[in-house]
Amino acid sequence: MPQAALRLDKVTRSFSQGREVLNVLTGADLAVNPGEIVALVGPSGAGKSTLLQICGLLEKPTAGEVRIGGISCGQLSEDRRTLLRRDHLGFVYQYHHLLPEFSAAENIVVPQMIAGIGRKPALARAAELLAKMGLSERQDHRPGQLSGGEQQRVAICRALANRPKLLLADEPTGNLDPNTAERVFQALLDLVRGEGLAALIATHNPDLARRMDRIVTLREGKVVAA
Ligand SMILES: Nc1ncnc2c1ncn2[C@@H]1O[C@H](COP(=O)(O)OP(=O)(O)OP(=O)(O)O)[C@@H](O)[C@H]1O
Predict the structure, then answer these.
(1) What is the pLDDT of residue 80?
(2) Which of 87, 96, 155, 159 could covalently link to 151 via disulfide, CB atoms 3.0 to 4.6 Å apart?
(3) Which family does it belong to?
(4) β-strands 166-170, 198-202 pairing
(5) Residue ranges covered by each domain of the chain
(6) How far is the CA of 137 from the centre of ligand 1 (A)?
(7) What is the C-alpha separation between 168 and 50, in angstroms, rounded?
(8) How far apart are CA 204 and CA 210, in angstroms?
(9) 7 CA distance to ligand 1 centroid (A)?
């Protein structure tokens, strides 16, 4: 059996809200295999974003274990968590969060240069990803000169720039009109499949969820098969 790209064992997460304790995750187990694209669904407030933040090493669970590519993350120093995030994980959010003063290509070059990749190969990788997303003509445009769908495509390219092994996406097309969302989502799936990486994608849209390899639901703080 290959090592899971992501594995959660008995993950819990509670928040204190005044005198109350809110138990959002109550023992979530999940494995995402290499190359597998998994849809994460569940009603609003079920804890999808919380789960993704924990998988992305942006938040720590109250208890339980998170493994990324077989690496147990619980005892890692902040520096090691940052490196693991940089080298293994890509993130796409509902809002693109692109750098407004930089071109589409530069937005994809920046994270690569932070990871120590030279400017020339970084530019080549940006051009390759933008071409796959049908955005070659737009590579010198700034985000403000792009449509919402184009901006989100650039954000997807940026997330894949450093060749992560796992993509985490939180409602990646939730901010787009239905037709644009449909096209951008298909482009995202094609790119993720083409690059052979694993993905965990939260969505409220059942049609989009059905296009993934498997659907899991968050119910009462646990992950259950849909
Ligand atoms: N930092 C926090 N402090 C306190 N409560 C929080 C915090 N983060 C999330 N919560 C609570 O945890 C619950 C789950 O939130 P979360 O955003 O993970 O749900 P979600 O399934 O992603 O919802 P949506 O589909 O609406 O985005 C909510 O009740 C939320 O208010």
Answers:
(1) 95
(2) 96
(3) Belongs to the ABC transporter superfamily. Lipoprotein translocase (TC 3.A.1.125) family.
(4) parallel
(5) 6-97+164-225
(6) 39
(7) 12
(8) 11
(9) 21
Q: How far is the CA of 218 from the centre of ligand 1 (A)?
A: 12
Q: Is the CB of 205 under 6 A from ligand 1?
A: no
Residue 94 — pLDDT band, cuts 50, 70, 90?
confident
Does residue 1 surpass a pLDDT of 70? no
Closest Cα to atom 17, ligand 1: which residue?
A: 49
Residue with tokens 């023992």: 27
As a CATH number, domain 6-97+164-225 is: 3.40.50.300
- What pLDDT is stored for residue 154 in this prediction? 96
How many whole angstroms separate alpha carbon 118 and alpha carbon 151? 24
Q: Token pair of 13, please?
A: 């997460």
- Please give the number of the atom of ligand 1 that sits closest to the Cα of 50: 18
Residues flagged as binding site for ATP: 42-49
Q: 45 CB under 6 A from ligand 1?
A: yes
Portion of the chain with pLDDT greater than 70, in percent: 100
The Cα–Cα gap between 120 and 190 comes to: 26
Instruction: Kindly give the distance from the C-alpha atom of residue 24 to the centroid of ligand 1, in angstroms, as a whole number.
Output: 8
